[in-house]
Every structure is written in C-alpha cells, then in structure tokens.
Amino acid sequence: MKREFILVPLLLLTPLWAELSREQIDKMVIKIQDRRISNVDVDFDKVKPPFIVVKQNDDGNQTTSLEVPQKKLEWSLNAIMTDDTQEGSTAFINGKWHKVGDEIQGYRLEKIRADMVLLHKGDRDIRLFLTKSSKIPQIQFAEDMQTDDKNNSMRGKI
Description:
Blueprint: H1 2-13, H2 22-33, E1 52-56, E2 62-66, E3 77-81, E4 90-93, E5 96-99, E6 103-104, E7 107-112, E8 116-121, E9 124-129, E10 146-148, E11 153-155
Antiparallel strand pairs: 1-2, 3-4, 4-5, 6-7, 7-8, 8-9, 10-11
C-alpha cells in the first residue's frame, strides 16, 4: 500500500520535470515539417513505372498494359501415398495432405504417381517430383503380409 501511495504522485508530477518546454517542442515540429531534400540524385521523369509492361504485337506495334506483379509460387512435395486407384492416393504438398481434384494455389491436382504429382491451371502444367532422401525411409509392404504371433504385429519389407 505504501508503494502505491508513493508511486502515484511521482507519476503525476513527472511532466513538471520535463526538460523541453512547449515552445521548444513547437519549434521542433515546424522544423520537421519543412521540405526535406534527398541525398540521392534521381530524375523521376526517367524512372519507368514497375507495373507497366510494353509488348510487341505481331504487326510491329507496341502496346502497353498495366500488370500487377504476381507472387512467385513455391512448391514443396514431401510425401506421396499411392493406392491402386487415383481416388485413394494422397500427396503432402506445401504442408498439407491433398487428393486428386484438390485446388492448391489456384492449380488443380490432376495426377498422383509414386514419385510425381501433376498440377494443372489453364494451359500450364507443373510437375513436382519426390526426391529421395536418406533421412526418409522408403517403405513398401509385401502383398502377403505375415503376422508375428509373438508380438501380434505385421511385418513388411523396408
């Protein structure tokens, strides 16, 4: 309780001990409002707008268009689980599991194979390949799974 009794008056009296007067602060604000001059010598009339694209037509004429730069798409294929049918196959792309028909960043997942997926958008196809890494084991199970009676577990080929 004593602590709060001392702390509150100190906080209220702090503005009285400020080193700058109101006139000094006003002068500083006026100085900041003055036009600033850049240290870089740039002729802004010669700078090309970054969003205007000049294209050459087949007839030789040039056309300009306004295009917004698109974010570069980044893809990461980390795992694939295949099935005999395309419907049962899934792929781990950009941190999420996807199946055929899913849309990822505007692209439709068309095919999932054992080592590759195919993404399609308009007239563009993207193929992502699964890279083999020594850290990720390749697991394949045999068709005739055997049960270990002692542990009641399944065994397969690795």
